[in-house]
Amino acid sequence: MKILSLRILTISLLAILFHGCGYKPTSHYAKNEISGKVYVELEVDIKNAENSVYIKDSINEMIVQQFGATLINNKSNAQTIIKVTLGSVSHLTLQTDNDGYAKLYRTIVSINMHYHNMASKILKSITVSSSYDYSIDTSSLITDAKKTEAIKVASSQALEDIFSSIAIQSFKK
Fold first, then answer.
1. pLDDT score recorded for residue 138
2. 3-class SS of residue 17
3. Closest CA to 135 of 87, 88, 93
4. Which residue in 4, 26, 50, 154 is deepest, having the highest Cβ count within 10 Å?
């Protein structure tokens, strides 16, 4: 009984402390930056067209699920306009075997996002990047399919940082 009472007291004090000090989760700030009817524009990288489309689909999904906004197809009716670009993609060899064949690779992806909230006149840019390391079999060569998959994984990891990056941007004037 004492342990239950102590837990309730501790939880109550923490709740009062967080509420009293003005604590707000990052999602609160990010949702103020990107809200309402959202139009997403994609600048396609010709060299990585498939991955550019994958990034746009991932952004669309994030806007609906994490921001709670509505996607629209008409730019003139948008309350927030987002422009997404696959900034850069690079592949590095990290390790070779005794014969000089590459065994371990790193793919580095950079994604640029510009957003304009019409109501609050917010116009900001964010760049997120991530890397993905992968190995290939002894008798294999790196294929386009493996490169494409590595770009998708690195892109997904980079996009996970967008939410917090937008929240941080909300503090910058």
1. 61
2. helix
3. 93
4. 154
